[in-house]
Write a structure and sequence with these properties.
Blueprint: H1 6-18, H2 21-28, H3 32-46, E1 51-54, E2 57-60, H4 62-88, E3 93-98, H5 100-117, E4 122-127, E5 141-146, E6 154-167, H6 169-174, E7 191-192, H7 204-210, E8 223-224, H8 227-235, E9 241-244, H9 249-253, E10 258-259, E11 266-276, H10 284-299
Parallel strand pairs: 3-4, 3-5, 7-8
Antiparallel strand pairs: 1-2, 5-11, 6-9, 6-10, 6-11
Helix pairs in contact: 1-2, 1-3, 1-4, 2-3
């Protein structure tokens, strides 16, 4: 089937999306006249007017708007296919995405064990709060926090969150006699910034209420954008932090943090899920990474 020239389609789609030939020209590093010429070529090829020309600019016709949407979708599919091809041209590369705190506090400390078991596999790690698009090939495997379900994806529960209060040994030496959670009201508490996608996540007020203590209206303390930053502040002795047990790991075993109140914990409303496209584990490298992630999760 004969198709219009690609350069003409690019110029046309950019002109509709940006709202004119001049802006499209800036995006494509062309002159406005060159964009206008390519759009005109496309109109002649289709034997159809795609823009209404006015003194103040151009406006797409109804047919032009509909065609531009279809062209944009096609370009996106082509872009996604190209990304997948480039990543998978070396079948040893597996892209794994997770939230920054899980990457830094759980995934990265464990990666050396994967390297020992599968030295031929290269892992590309994407730390992102926003969901990385598996359908368009941005990653092969995702470890995502939420309730599910995840339509169109193979998913399984991987980790649950149990929140505990932690502080550094130095901080606890300076603030002895912490017998009950209510004793924390007189101390600096370290807070995570809540994100819109997880509105019910456990924070200090919810944690206090769950353990049977009514918190004051205002709990003072520094606020951090990511849990791993909150934990670094706690390690530095700046206050008491709240975190899921699964990301404490070497901070506890290495003696940099201690869990308070004999491990008193509150279960979070969300779980971490292992996600991938159906059939993704046909690739041996993806299957190996998924198996390794499952084993690490079972080990705690």
């Amino acid at each position: 089937m004969k198709l219009p020239p690609l350069a003409c389609l690019r110029a046309f789609e950019a002109a509709v999306r940006t709202g004119g030939f001049a802006r499209a020209a800036d995006e494509l590093a062309l002159t406005p006249n060159a964009v206008a010429h390519q759009v005109k070529q496309l109109e002649e090829w289709l034997d159809m007017r795609l823009f209404e020309r006015h003194a103040r600019g151009v406006v797409p016709t109804p047919a032009g708007s509909a065609y531009a949407a279809a062209v944009a979708d096609t370009f996106e599919q082509l872009s996604a296919a190209t990304r997948q091809l480039l990543v998978r041209r070396d079948d040893r590369v597996v892209t794994v995405t997770a939230m920054p705190s899980l990457v830094t506090r759980w995934l990265m400390p464990r990666l050396p064990r994967l390297a020992v078991r599968h030295p031929d596999i290269e892992v590309r790690v994407l730390a992102s709060v926003k969901h990385v698009d598996l359908f368009h090939g941005e990653a092969d495997v995702a470890i995502r926090l939420g309730r599910g379900p995840y339509p169109g994806l193979a998913s399984e529960e991987l980790l649950i969150e149990n929140f505990v209060a932690v502080a550094s040994p130095r901080f606890l030496e300076a603030h002895p006699n912490l017998a009950t959670p209510a004793d924390l009201f007189r101390l600096p508490l370290l807070h995570d910034e809540m994100i819109d996608a997880l509105p019910d996540e456990v924070d200090w007020p919810r944690w206090f209420e769950a353990v049977g203590v009514k918190p004051p209206r205002r709990l003072a303390g520094h606020l951090f954008s990511h849990t791993y930053l909150t934990l670094e502040a706690a390690i530095a002795g700046q206050g008491v932090a709240l975190a899921g047990e699964h990301i404490l790991g070497d901070a506890i075993t290495g003696g940099r943090l201690r869990v308070l109140f004999n491990g008193l914990s509150v279960k979070g409303p969300y779980q971490y899920h292992l996600l991938r496209l159906p059939g993704a584990e046909v690739r041996p490298a993806v299957a190996a990474v998924c198996d390794w992630v499952r084993e690490e999760a079972r080990a705690g």
